[in-house]
Amino acid sequence: MGALDFLSDYFSVSTPKKKRKPMQTVEIKVKMDCDGCERRVRNSVSNMSGVKQVEVNRKQSKVAVTGYVDRNKVLKKVQSTGKRAEFWPYIQYNLVAYPYVAQAYDKKAPSGYVKNAEQALPNPNAPDEKLTSLFSDENPNACSIM
After folding, report:
1. In the structure, how many helices (H) and strands (E) does the chain have?
2. Strand runs labelled E in the chain
3. Alpha carbon 49 to its chain's center
4. What's the gap between Cα 20 and its chain centre?
5. Residue 143 CB partners (closer than 8 Å, separation 6+)
6. pTM here?
7. Residue 42, helix vs strand vs coil
8. 105 within 8 A of 120, measured Cβ to Cβ
9. What per-residue confidence (pLDDT) applies to 64?
């Protein structure tokens, strides 16, 4: 048996390993009007391979898919139901420094959310940011006159 084990190391057949997709949550904005729309979107996405959980929130027009999936394939699958779908464009308003600037504020956004816009994030090197932090109560080196 020693000779066979020795030779089997040289002649082993190995199958290439598939790279597994990372576990992620894909959030999609889908306009759903009724229970039938909600059921159709849920069934189409839950039948995909790698999907672990599907959450549908009709009030916010939001579908959250968790699993080992590709986000573009999930979007295509939702669009194949005939619904207009796009990636979730909103973030919570408390994560943005200036949530009510023109670029971030959106009337169509669900309550507690603003549009995820690059202009909504402040530049930390901007001169007005330095001045406002100079007189801030959270700054221990702030002006003592205030």
Report:
1. 4, 6
2. 24-30, 51-57, 62-67, 85-87, 90-92, 113-115
3. 19
4. 19
5. 134, 135
6. 0.62
7. helix
8. no
9. 94
